[in-house]
Amino acid sequence: MAVKTLQMILYGLKMVVDNYPETIRRVIIINAPIYFSWLYAAVKPVLPDTIIRKVRIFGTDGWKDCLLQFIDAEYLPAYLGGEKADPDGNPLCETFIHRGSVIPKSYYMLKRGKKLSLEPDVDKLTVLPRSKEEITFFVKEENSYIEWEFETKNRDIDFSLLFREKSFGDFESVVLIPQQRIDCHETERGCFKCEKVGNYSMVFDNSFSWIHSKEIYYKAGIQSPRYNNIFDTM
Fold it and tell me: Are 176 and 184 spatial neighbours (Cβ–Cβ below 8 Å)?
């Protein structure tokens, strides 16, 4: 659980820092278990300085003084070491801090949104552990569009889009969409404008998994600028 939590925090922080620089001034994690700090220390050498400077992780001690360095006591809730309280004196400040609670089962979305695998014209692809698979289209006309939608039966998969002018010889692939981890909970949809004639490859990469195969359900094709299907699957 700690690994997933740390991964989620760092991924979210990196996304905000990359796309909305200086929006986050500081991230302070308090009451973290000791192994959480160990995990952070292990990944810290590969993190950019922009993230390292913003993150502070504390166990049970030391965090109150740190919070007061950045937040005036009159605005910091009493249960966090400040002076702010509810009108009735409640130090938890429940009148303006809305805490999480149990999510009603009526809001559960697990498997509910996965409908692509039930469609009759969908294709299925199995990606073995420590391997990857490519689905390649040859685009015959400039400014066509490659469109796709896919979902995994369970677990995540890495996805990227590559371009090669020729399907043979020493032509290197050009990365059009960098590899990114796709969550398994919802159907992924995308579109890319193909400005050149050549081979466009959707890559499903399962190299990070040592044990689990991934089942991919997908629909993909090339749409011409005149909205006529002109694709050939290699």
Answer: no
Which tens digit of pLDDT belongs to each residue from 205-215? Answer: 999 988 889 99
Q: How far apart are CA 108 and CA 56, in angstroms?
A: 33
Strands 27-29 and 55-57: what pairing? parallel
Top-confidence residue, 46 or 97: 97
Report the pLDDT averaged over residues 94-98. Answer: 88
Alpha carbon 115 to chain centroid, angstroms: 21
User: Three-state SS for 221?
Assistant: strand
pTM over 0.70: no
Q: Could you read off the pLDDT of 99-111 as tens digits, one per residue?
A: 888 888 777 655 5
Residues 17/54, Cβ–Cβ less than 8 Å: yes
Closest CA to 93 of 111, 75, 108, 109: 75
From CA 177, how far away is CA 191, in angstroms rounded? 11
* Distance in angstroms (rounded) separating the CA atoms of residues 128 and 205: 9
* 146 and 192 Cβ atoms separated by less than 8 Å: yes
Q: Coil, strand or helix: which one is 9?
A: helix
Please give the Cα distance from 148 to 167 (Å, whole number). 21
- The first and second tokens of residue 143, run together, are 């400014």
Q: Which residue type does 7 have?
A: Q
Angle made by CA atoms 207, 171, 188, in degrees to the nearest 5? 40
Averaged pLDDT for residues 141-147: 91
| Contact present, 200 and 142 (Cβ < 8 Å) | no
CA distance 136 to 163: 9
Q: Report the C-alpha gap between 196 and 224 in whole angstroms.
A: 12
